[in-house]
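Summary: Need help interpreting a holo structure output

Steps to reproduce:
1. Submit the protein chain below together with the SMILES for zinc ion.
2. Request a joint structure prediction with the ligand placed.
3. Inspect the C-alpha coordinate block that comes back.

Expected: a single structure record containing both the chain and the bound molecule.
Actual: see attached output.

Input attached:
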Amino acid sequence: MDPRGAPVTLAGTWFATGSAKNHTATLTLDGGVLTLYAKDTVATFTAGDVHVTGLDDPLTVDFPDGGSFVATAGDAGARALLAALRVGDSPVARLEKSWRTVLIAAACTMALTALFFFVILPAAAKPAAMIVPQKWARIIDEQTLVLLDRAAFGESTLAADRRQELEGVLAGLVDQLGLDADRYRLLMRHGRMMGPNAFALPGGTIVVTDQMADFVDDDDQLRAVLAHEIGHVEERHGLQQLLRGSTLAIMLVMVGPDAGTISHLASGMPAVLMEKGYSRNFERAADIYACRSLVRAGEGTEAYARIMEKLMEAYPGAPAGTAWFSTHPDSHERVAMIRGYKP
Ligand SMILES: [Zn+2]
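--- attached output ---
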Protein backbone atom coordinates (compact mmCIF):
# COMPACT_ATOMS: atom_id res chain seq x y z
CA MET A 1 0.00 0.00 0.00
CA ASP A 2 1.20 3.49 -0.75
CA PRO A 3 1.53 6.02 2.14
CA ARG A 4 -0.45 8.29 -0.13
CA GLY A 5 -3.53 6.03 0.22
CA ALA A 6 -6.64 6.71 2.31
CA PRO A 7 -6.11 9.05 5.29
CA VAL A 8 -5.47 7.34 8.63
CA THR A 9 -6.12 8.82 12.04
CA LEU A 10 -5.18 7.46 15.42
CA ALA A 11 -5.30 8.67 18.99
CA GLY A 12 -2.48 8.53 21.51
CA THR A 13 0.00 10.45 23.58
CA TRP A 14 2.62 12.91 22.42
CA PHE A 15 5.94 13.18 24.22
CA ALA A 16 7.44 16.50 23.13
CA THR A 17 11.19 16.99 22.66
CA GLY A 18 13.03 17.74 25.88
CA SER A 19 9.88 17.59 27.97
CA ALA A 20 8.89 15.07 30.57
CA LYS A 21 5.28 16.10 30.06
CA ASN A 22 2.98 14.22 27.78
CA HIS A 23 -0.06 15.41 25.94
CA THR A 24 -3.13 13.77 24.55
CA ALA A 25 -2.74 13.92 20.80
CA THR A 26 -4.00 12.74 17.44
CA LEU A 27 -1.84 11.65 14.55
CA THR A 28 -3.02 11.58 10.97
CA LEU A 29 -1.40 10.27 7.85
CA ASP A 30 -2.62 11.80 4.65
CA GLY A 31 -0.87 12.01 1.33
CA GLY A 32 2.45 10.86 2.77
CA VAL A 33 2.38 13.56 5.44
CA LEU A 34 1.99 12.86 9.14
CA THR A 35 0.29 15.60 11.14
CA LEU A 36 0.36 15.71 14.90
CA TYR A 37 -2.43 17.55 16.66
CA ALA A 38 -2.03 18.27 20.37
CA LYS A 39 -3.12 21.06 22.64
CA ASP A 40 -1.66 24.30 21.19
CA THR A 41 0.50 22.30 18.77
CA VAL A 42 0.23 21.19 15.16
CA ALA A 43 3.34 19.69 13.58
CA THR A 44 3.86 17.97 10.26
CA PHE A 45 6.43 15.37 9.24
CA THR A 46 7.14 13.55 6.04
CA ALA A 47 6.27 9.87 6.40
CA GLY A 48 9.77 8.86 5.27
CA ASP A 49 11.39 10.87 8.08
CA VAL A 50 9.71 9.15 11.02
CA HIS A 51 10.69 5.89 12.65
CA VAL A 52 7.86 3.56 13.53
CA THR A 53 8.33 0.72 16.04
CA GLY A 54 6.05 -1.70 17.74
CA LEU A 55 4.52 -4.23 15.43
CA ASP A 56 2.33 -5.11 18.38
CA ASP A 57 0.85 -2.54 20.78
CA PRO A 58 1.88 0.04 21.59
CA LEU A 59 2.74 1.54 18.23
CA THR A 60 5.34 4.29 18.61
CA VAL A 61 6.25 6.94 16.06
CA ASP A 62 9.57 8.72 16.66
CA PHE A 63 9.81 12.13 15.00
CA PRO A 64 13.02 13.58 13.60
CA ASP A 65 12.86 16.42 16.16
CA GLY A 66 13.27 13.92 19.02
CA GLY A 67 9.65 13.84 20.07
CA SER A 68 7.46 10.79 19.86
CA PHE A 69 3.87 9.66 19.64
CA VAL A 70 2.57 6.52 21.33
CA ALA A 71 -0.73 5.26 20.05
CA THR A 72 -3.47 4.28 22.45
CA ALA A 73 -3.44 0.52 22.86
CA GLY A 74 -6.00 -1.13 20.67
CA ASP A 75 -6.56 1.85 18.40
CA ALA A 76 -7.78 0.47 15.11
CA GLY A 77 -5.86 3.18 13.29
CA ALA A 78 -2.53 1.64 14.43
CA ARG A 79 -2.82 -1.32 12.08
CA ALA A 80 -3.92 0.94 9.24
CA LEU A 81 -0.94 3.23 9.83
CA LEU A 82 1.44 0.28 9.92
CA ALA A 83 -0.03 -1.03 6.69
CA ALA A 84 0.12 2.40 5.07
CA LEU A 85 3.78 2.79 6.01
CA ARG A 86 4.42 -0.86 5.15
CA VAL A 87 5.97 -1.43 8.59
CA GLY A 88 5.99 -5.13 9.43
CA ASP A 89 5.69 -5.82 5.77
CA SER A 90 9.36 -5.41 5.05
CA PRO A 91 10.86 -7.67 2.42
CA VAL A 92 12.54 -9.78 5.13
CA ALA A 93 9.32 -10.19 7.12
CA ARG A 94 7.39 -11.09 4.01
CA LEU A 95 10.02 -13.59 2.95
CA GLU A 96 10.13 -15.21 6.35
CA LYS A 97 6.40 -15.66 6.34
CA SER A 98 6.53 -17.59 3.12
CA TRP A 99 7.14 -21.30 3.62
CA ARG A 100 7.70 -21.65 -0.05
CA THR A 101 10.51 -19.15 0.18
CA VAL A 102 11.94 -20.89 3.24
CA LEU A 103 11.96 -24.22 1.41
CA ILE A 104 13.55 -22.66 -1.64
CA ALA A 105 16.17 -21.03 0.59
CA ALA A 106 16.91 -24.40 2.24
CA ALA A 107 17.21 -26.05 -1.16
CA CYS A 108 19.53 -23.28 -2.33
CA THR A 109 21.66 -23.71 0.79
CA MET A 110 21.92 -27.44 0.16
CA ALA A 111 22.69 -26.85 -3.49
CA LEU A 112 25.40 -24.35 -2.61
CA THR A 113 26.87 -26.75 -0.04
CA ALA A 114 26.87 -29.55 -2.60
CA LEU A 115 28.34 -27.20 -5.18
CA PHE A 116 31.10 -26.34 -2.70
CA PHE A 117 31.98 -29.91 -1.75
CA PHE A 118 31.44 -31.64 -5.07
CA VAL A 119 32.46 -28.98 -7.56
CA ILE A 120 34.39 -26.06 -6.07
CA LEU A 121 36.53 -28.01 -3.58
CA PRO A 122 37.51 -30.75 -6.08
CA ALA A 123 38.11 -28.07 -8.72
CA ALA A 124 40.39 -26.16 -6.34
CA ALA A 125 42.10 -29.35 -5.09
CA LYS A 126 43.34 -30.26 -8.57
CA PRO A 127 45.51 -27.19 -9.30
CA ALA A 128 46.68 -27.20 -5.67
CA ALA A 129 47.73 -30.86 -5.99
CA MET A 130 49.55 -30.11 -9.22
CA ILE A 131 51.75 -27.41 -7.70
CA VAL A 132 52.93 -29.40 -4.69
CA PRO A 133 56.68 -29.74 -5.36
CA GLN A 134 58.03 -33.24 -5.83
CA LYS A 135 60.24 -33.00 -2.74
CA TRP A 136 57.17 -32.44 -0.55
CA ALA A 137 55.24 -35.21 -2.29
CA ARG A 138 58.11 -37.56 -1.55
CA ILE A 139 58.05 -36.53 2.10
CA ILE A 140 54.37 -37.54 2.18
CA ASP A 141 55.47 -40.93 0.80
CA GLU A 142 58.04 -41.36 3.57
CA GLN A 143 55.64 -40.43 6.35
CA THR A 144 52.92 -42.65 4.93
CA LEU A 145 55.32 -45.58 4.65
CA VAL A 146 56.33 -45.26 8.29
CA LEU A 147 52.67 -45.50 9.29
CA LEU A 148 51.81 -48.33 6.91
CA ASP A 149 54.91 -50.34 7.81
CA ARG A 150 53.88 -50.09 11.43
CA ALA A 151 50.22 -50.91 10.90
CA ALA A 152 49.65 -52.87 7.72
CA PHE A 153 52.74 -54.19 5.95
CA GLY A 154 55.29 -56.81 6.76
CA GLU A 155 58.79 -57.04 5.36
CA SER A 156 58.97 -58.57 1.90
CA THR A 157 59.94 -62.21 1.85
CA LEU A 158 60.74 -62.24 -1.86
CA ALA A 159 64.26 -63.14 -2.91
CA ALA A 160 66.47 -60.16 -3.70
CA ASP A 161 66.84 -61.10 -7.36
CA ARG A 162 63.08 -61.37 -7.78
CA ARG A 163 62.66 -57.94 -6.21
CA GLN A 164 65.25 -56.56 -8.62
CA GLU A 165 63.43 -58.16 -11.50
CA LEU A 166 60.21 -56.47 -10.45
CA GLU A 167 61.95 -53.12 -10.05
CA GLY A 168 63.18 -53.61 -13.59
CA VAL A 169 59.59 -54.08 -14.80
CA LEU A 170 58.60 -50.71 -13.30
CA ALA A 171 61.73 -48.96 -14.60
CA GLY A 172 61.12 -50.36 -18.10
CA LEU A 173 57.51 -49.16 -18.12
CA VAL A 174 58.44 -45.70 -16.80
CA ASP A 175 61.08 -45.45 -19.52
CA GLN A 176 58.69 -46.60 -22.26
CA LEU A 177 56.15 -44.00 -21.18
CA GLY A 178 58.80 -41.25 -21.16
CA LEU A 179 58.21 -40.44 -17.48
CA ASP A 180 60.64 -39.06 -14.92
CA ALA A 181 62.71 -42.08 -13.83
CA ASP A 182 63.82 -40.33 -10.64
CA ARG A 183 60.27 -39.96 -9.45
CA TYR A 184 59.42 -43.66 -9.44
CA ARG A 185 60.53 -46.45 -7.19
CA LEU A 186 59.07 -49.85 -6.45
CA LEU A 187 58.92 -51.11 -2.89
CA MET A 188 57.91 -54.67 -2.11
CA ARG A 189 56.11 -55.45 1.12
CA HIS A 190 54.37 -58.47 2.57
CA GLY A 191 50.67 -57.66 2.41
CA ARG A 192 49.75 -59.77 5.44
CA MET A 193 45.95 -60.11 5.54
CA MET A 194 45.34 -57.82 2.57
CA GLY A 195 46.77 -60.28 0.05
CA PRO A 196 47.52 -59.24 -3.55
CA ASN A 197 47.54 -55.48 -3.63
CA ALA A 198 49.34 -52.40 -4.90
CA PHE A 199 49.42 -48.79 -3.75
CA ALA A 200 50.59 -45.54 -5.26
CA LEU A 201 51.90 -42.86 -2.93
CA PRO A 202 51.79 -39.21 -4.10
CA GLY A 203 55.54 -38.83 -4.64
CA GLY A 204 55.90 -41.79 -7.02
CA THR A 205 56.52 -44.61 -4.56
CA ILE A 206 54.62 -47.69 -5.67
CA VAL A 207 54.18 -50.42 -3.09
CA VAL A 208 53.36 -53.89 -4.39
CA THR A 209 52.68 -56.77 -2.04
CA ASP A 210 54.58 -60.05 -2.32
CA GLN A 211 51.22 -61.71 -2.81
CA MET A 212 50.52 -59.59 -5.89
CA ALA A 213 53.93 -60.44 -7.33
CA ASP A 214 53.14 -64.13 -6.80
CA PHE A 215 49.58 -63.84 -8.04
CA VAL A 216 50.20 -62.38 -11.50
CA ASP A 217 50.66 -64.90 -14.31
CA ASP A 218 53.34 -62.86 -16.05
CA ASP A 219 55.07 -59.49 -16.28
CA ASP A 220 52.38 -58.16 -18.61
CA GLN A 221 49.81 -58.44 -15.85
CA LEU A 222 52.19 -56.81 -13.40
CA ARG A 223 52.85 -54.01 -15.89
CA ALA A 224 49.09 -53.47 -16.09
CA VAL A 225 48.87 -53.16 -12.30
CA LEU A 226 51.82 -50.76 -12.31
CA ALA A 227 50.38 -48.69 -15.17
CA HIS A 228 47.22 -48.16 -13.13
CA GLU A 229 49.25 -47.04 -10.11
CA ILE A 230 51.38 -44.74 -12.29
CA GLY A 231 48.09 -43.18 -13.41
CA HIS A 232 47.27 -42.31 -9.79
CA VAL A 233 50.71 -40.70 -9.38
CA GLU A 234 50.76 -38.76 -12.66
CA GLU A 235 47.28 -37.38 -12.14
CA ARG A 236 48.04 -36.65 -8.51
CA HIS A 237 44.98 -38.48 -7.24
CA GLY A 238 46.44 -39.01 -3.77
CA LEU A 239 47.14 -35.33 -3.20
CA GLN A 240 43.80 -34.31 -4.68
CA GLN A 241 41.96 -36.71 -2.41
CA LEU A 242 43.81 -35.36 0.61
CA LEU A 243 43.23 -31.72 -0.35
CA ARG A 244 39.54 -32.25 -1.02
CA GLY A 245 39.09 -32.69 2.69
CA SER A 246 40.42 -29.27 3.67
CA THR A 247 39.87 -25.80 2.27
CA LEU A 248 42.58 -24.55 4.61
CA ALA A 249 45.11 -27.07 3.28
CA ILE A 250 44.30 -25.98 -0.29
CA MET A 251 44.95 -22.35 0.64
CA LEU A 252 48.17 -23.23 2.48
CA VAL A 253 49.40 -25.23 -0.49
CA MET A 254 48.51 -22.37 -2.85
CA VAL A 255 50.59 -19.88 -0.88
CA GLY A 256 53.45 -22.36 -0.56
CA PRO A 257 53.43 -25.59 1.41
CA ASP A 258 55.50 -25.97 4.55
CA ALA A 259 56.47 -28.95 6.67
CA GLY A 260 53.45 -28.59 8.93
CA THR A 261 50.95 -28.58 6.07
CA ILE A 262 52.65 -31.52 4.39
CA SER A 263 52.78 -33.50 7.61
CA HIS A 264 49.08 -32.81 8.18
CA LEU A 265 48.25 -34.03 4.68
CA ALA A 266 50.44 -37.12 5.05
CA SER A 267 48.58 -38.16 8.17
CA GLY A 268 45.46 -38.68 6.05
CA MET A 269 47.13 -40.81 3.39
CA PRO A 270 46.97 -44.24 5.10
CA ALA A 271 43.19 -43.90 5.45
CA VAL A 272 42.87 -43.03 1.75
CA LEU A 273 44.87 -46.11 0.79
CA MET A 274 43.57 -48.60 3.36
CA GLU A 275 40.01 -47.58 4.13
CA LYS A 276 38.38 -45.05 1.88
CA GLY A 277 40.06 -45.87 -1.39
CA TYR A 278 40.23 -43.40 -4.21
CA SER A 279 37.03 -41.93 -5.57
CA ARG A 280 35.25 -43.79 -8.33
CA ASN A 281 36.24 -41.10 -10.80
CA PHE A 282 39.91 -41.40 -9.86
CA GLU A 283 39.80 -45.19 -10.29
CA ARG A 284 38.21 -44.77 -13.70
CA ALA A 285 40.80 -42.14 -14.62
CA ALA A 286 43.64 -44.47 -13.54
CA ASP A 287 42.08 -47.28 -15.60
CA ILE A 288 41.95 -45.05 -18.65
CA TYR A 289 45.49 -43.83 -18.03
CA ALA A 290 46.68 -47.46 -17.78
CA CYS A 291 44.83 -48.55 -20.93
CA ARG A 292 46.25 -45.62 -22.89
CA SER A 293 49.76 -46.29 -21.57
CA LEU A 294 49.65 -50.03 -22.26
CA VAL A 295 48.47 -49.42 -25.81
CA ARG A 296 51.16 -46.78 -26.28
CA ALA A 297 53.76 -49.21 -24.92
CA GLY A 298 52.79 -51.60 -27.71
CA GLU A 299 50.59 -53.93 -25.67
CA GLY A 300 46.88 -54.38 -25.68
CA THR A 301 44.70 -54.20 -22.59
CA GLU A 302 43.96 -57.93 -22.40
CA ALA A 303 46.52 -58.62 -19.66
CA TYR A 304 44.96 -55.80 -17.67
CA ALA A 305 41.45 -57.17 -18.03
CA ARG A 306 42.73 -60.65 -17.20
CA ILE A 307 44.44 -59.71 -13.94
CA MET A 308 41.30 -57.88 -12.83
CA GLU A 309 39.17 -60.94 -13.60
CA LYS A 310 41.63 -63.29 -11.94
CA LEU A 311 41.53 -61.26 -8.73
CA MET A 312 37.74 -61.06 -8.80
CA GLU A 313 37.51 -64.84 -9.22
CA ALA A 314 40.01 -65.54 -6.46
CA TYR A 315 38.54 -63.08 -3.98
CA PRO A 316 34.81 -62.85 -4.59
CA GLY A 317 33.06 -60.44 -2.26
CA ALA A 318 36.25 -58.74 -1.09
CA PRO A 319 35.19 -55.62 0.76
CA ALA A 320 35.42 -52.34 -1.11
CA GLY A 321 38.45 -50.22 -0.41
CA THR A 322 40.69 -53.04 0.76
CA ALA A 323 41.35 -55.02 -2.43
CA TRP A 324 43.11 -53.68 -5.49
CA PHE A 325 40.31 -54.71 -7.82
CA SER A 326 37.26 -53.97 -5.70
CA THR A 327 37.82 -50.41 -4.62
CA HIS A 328 34.34 -49.92 -5.98
CA PRO A 329 31.55 -52.35 -6.66
CA ASP A 330 31.65 -51.79 -10.40
CA SER A 331 34.56 -54.16 -11.08
CA HIS A 332 32.73 -55.96 -13.89
CA GLU A 333 32.02 -52.65 -15.55
CA ARG A 334 35.71 -51.73 -15.22
CA VAL A 335 36.80 -54.99 -16.83
CA ALA A 336 34.40 -54.40 -19.73
CA MET A 337 35.78 -50.88 -20.21
CA ILE A 338 39.39 -52.14 -20.11
CA ARG A 339 38.78 -54.97 -22.55
CA GLY A 340 36.83 -52.74 -24.93
CA TYR A 341 39.25 -49.79 -24.66
CA LYS A 342 39.89 -47.99 -27.93
CA PRO A 343 42.48 -45.22 -27.93
ZN1 LIG B 1 43.47 -47.48 -8.17
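--- end attachment ---

Reviewer comment: The first strand starts at residue 8 and ends at 15. Residues 114-339 form one domain.
Status: needs-info
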